[in-house]
Amino acid sequence: MTLHELTSNAAKYGALSAPDGHIHVEWSVTENNQVVLRWTESGGPHVEPPSREGFGTQLMKAMISGQLQGRLAFDWRPEGLACEIVVRTC
Ligand SMILES: Nc1ncnc2c1ncn2[C@@H]1O[C@H](COP(=O)(O)OP(=O)(O)OP(=O)(O)O)[C@@H](O)[C@H]1O
Ligand SMILES: [Mg+2]
């Protein structure tokens, strides 16, 4: 659901709203059983930190930080949103 929300947001506001936009997604599992997922948008419109938090952001925070007790960080870079998600595998 979190990836769906990030994708939906990219289509509405970010890299997927522009013909030349790209999203780089990479993930790895660390030695201490954490999944680290990095989502990096580029080639879309100029980005500024949002002034409002919608339902999608609240949902992602509730799932990653609340339910999975992980971490979710947004970096509102002018050239595109970068998001890092860290959750434990067990
Ligand atoms: N990939 C992105 N690039 C640029 N701005 C973004 C991106 N994702 C989100 N935003 C900004 O952050 C705001 C909050 O996003 P959020 O997903 O919480 O709300 P929403 O998508 O507007 O509404 P909802 O998710 O409830 O349908 C958005 O309104 C938008 O201004
Ligand atoms: Mg949204």
Characterise the protein shown here.
This protein has a single domain (2-88), classed as 2-Layer Sandwich (Heat Shock Protein 90). Helices cover 27% and strands 37% of the residues. It has 2 helices and 4 strands; from the N terminus they run H-E-E-H-E-E. A 4-stranded antiparallel beta sheet has the order 1-2-4-3, covered by helices on one side. Helix 1 runs antiparallel to helix 2. It starts with a helix and ends with a strand. Residues 5, 8-9, 54, 56 line the site of magnesium ion.
String of helices and strands: HEEHEE
Architecture, according to CATH? 2-Layer Sandwich
- Alpha carbon gyration radius: 13 Å
Proportion of residues in extended strands: 35-45%
Which ions and ligands are bound to the chains? adenosine-5'-triphosphate, magnesium ion
CATH topology: Heat Shock Protein 90
The poorly predicted ranges are: none
Per CATH, the superfamily is Histidine kinase-like ATPase, C-terminal domain
Shape: globular
**Euclidean distance between termini CA atoms:** 19 Å
Helix tally? 2
* Percent helix: 25-40%
Q: According to CATH, what is the class?
A: Alpha Beta
Helix/strand/pairing category:
alpha+beta
